[in-house]
Amino acid sequence: xxxxxxxxxxxxxxxxxxxxxxxxxxxxxxxxxxxxxxxxxxxxxxxxxxxxxxxxxxxxxxxxxxxxxxxxxxxxxxxxxxxxxxxxxxxxxxxxxxxxxxxxxxxxxxxxxxxxxxxxxxxxxxxxxxxxxxxxxxxxxxxxxxxxxxxxxxxxxxxxxxxxxxxxxxxxxxxxxxxxxxxxxxxxxxxxxxxxxxxxxxxxxxxxxxxxxxxxxxxxxxxxxxxxxxxxxxxxxxxxxxxxxxxxxxxxxxxxxxxxxxxxxxxxxxxxxxxxxxxxxxxxxxxxxxxxxxxxxxxxxxxxxxxxxxxxxxxxxxxxxxxxxxxxxxxxxxxxxxxxxxxxxxxxxxxxxxxxxxxxxxxxxxxxxxxxxxxxxxxxxxxxxxxxxxxxxxx
Length: 395
Known about the structure:
Layout: H1 8-14, H2 24-27, H3 43-49, E1 56-61, E2 65-70, E3 93-98, E4 117-119, E5 124-125, E6 129-133, E7 141-143, H4 144-147, E8 157-159, E9 165-167, H5 172-178, E10 188-192, E11 197-199, E12 202-204, E13 213-215, E14 220-222, E15 259-261, E16 273-276, E17 285-289, H6 314-317, E18 328-329, H7 343-355, H8 379-391
Parallel strand pairs: 5-9, 11-17
Antiparallel strand pairs: 1-2, 1-18, 2-3, 4-5, 4-10, 6-7, 8-9, 10-11, 12-13, 14-15, 16-17
Helix pairs in contact: 1-7
């Protein structure tokens, strides 16, 4: 604990101030406040990334939506990617997230190939598939985490042919940056394109927020099969659509259809989420969780299940998002989201500065005063806040 000296009376006057009541889909994003670029330990990759701004470049908001601009490149080091010839590039992402997402009714939309959401640093989220199936018939779809796993970097991601750096599983690099180690409820790691938040693997034991923090388990399991003649829903295939027998070449888990959903097996539903209380949503929300097993390895379906829980915002997947003229920029130092960086924001900044580490249990949810996103609210964040304070108005 440290005592902040400048303007301290504002914090005292506010009591134990809580950070911003703004919607999490506005304030959770990791905006690039320092002009940092991508980086890699590999010289060739680093030469490419060093010309691309990292993280999120801008967040704008209206009464109904947030709009996010990003390059798709994180600030933490990425690459190399063994046996993957692709190189990452600026994806010029513009995505829209509703403040109040809607649960789907009837048939839920399947997650498609390509991006199905964004991590809070603007990196794209892909589903569990790798776009290939056995004999290209579409019945036995390859599991990217198994088949492409050898090409993942230490952060758990790799670039697609079009240059989109992405993850099919829990984003290891981002979780390290955010200190998501299980000592407290996981932070928001991203948002799916239906607008619902995606958390790390740790949540409250009970959906009402009680019971302490535990690892939340997927309700999917590997099927007990040695031949691939039926689908998880019981459909018996014709011989021409059989998959290969389970073997060392095609081990169990090689295909998405090697898994089955068992209601109640774990904490989560078929979409890999649940309605629950979280630190960011004390009144409750539907939320996805990135699932891992007891060893820390990713557990199917990894992020979002085979279908979205909510109504897909199709302008995200069709790359046709348009920002209305009245959308207002959101700047991270504006902690109470009133369009100005003033004494009221400092009253919210000060308690977080005194706590210091984002991993501390008493740090306000989201650690939004960590303006440079390094895991602590320290002097570097104070400098960024002071610059914004002098500017006064978000622009």
